[in-house]
Amino acid sequence: MANCKFCGEPAGFLRRSHKACKAGNAEGRKSVTALVQEFVSKPRHENITLLEKEITSIARNNHINVDKLKESVLEGWETAVENAFADDILDEQEEERLLAIQECFSLTQDELDQNESFTRVVKGAILRDVLNGNVPERLAIQGEMPFNLQKSESIIWLFQDVDYFTQKVQAVRVGETSGFSMRITKGLYYRTGSFQGRTIESTETVYVDNGTLGITDKHVYFSSPSTSFRIRLDKIVSFIPYEDGIGLHKDTNNAKPQTFITGDGWFTYNLIANAAQL
Fold this sequence. Notes:
alpha+beta, PH-domain like, 2 domains, seven-stranded antiparallel beta sheet
């Protein structure tokens, strides 16, 4: 006769757990997830200590082990992040409570970022700083940065694995014809008569390279194996939002639109457009 995997008492013939223990464990985990979520959006506890005490009590009474408890807290944390961005803005209280949960339950950044929730919190905090007219100092760069920043210039964000596109102007020969058409095959015509050609310009968006896009309080930088450049923020005259990136148009003669695919158009657009106002 096996013991219940939850309470450790005899479970009965060919049973691994008591029905009540299994149900209580599942319900307890749901309660933990809900409490974590509510602590950020609709807190019924004044501080993290009270939340920790209630969660510890639920875990003890419902035989929730350490690993399952962490899973439940993580699930609640991710849901809380999702709810916090319902209005697209992460306020300071929401950020403080999310970080308090992280510290209280010893959650690592990697654990919190399994679904990029931690990265989303950092992005939200950076945008809030920029919107408030402040230069964020939340990014820690490890290794050598591919950009040569100017004095008193601060890096705000780095996008890795960015596809860079620009517009290429091509000369195309077109003509005006007169005369008659002679049918050769179905759908194809050979035109005879006079042909006067002229040159017009057409544009197409072409892929250039994949590299790193850096945003500072003064410039947009791009670096790749084939090309490197920077764009002054105050020289950008238009920002084109895309679902997965942004298009920029500089205030210079013969400037061509430049497009950067970062994977997060919402953050990219809001960051660069507002950084230009710092």
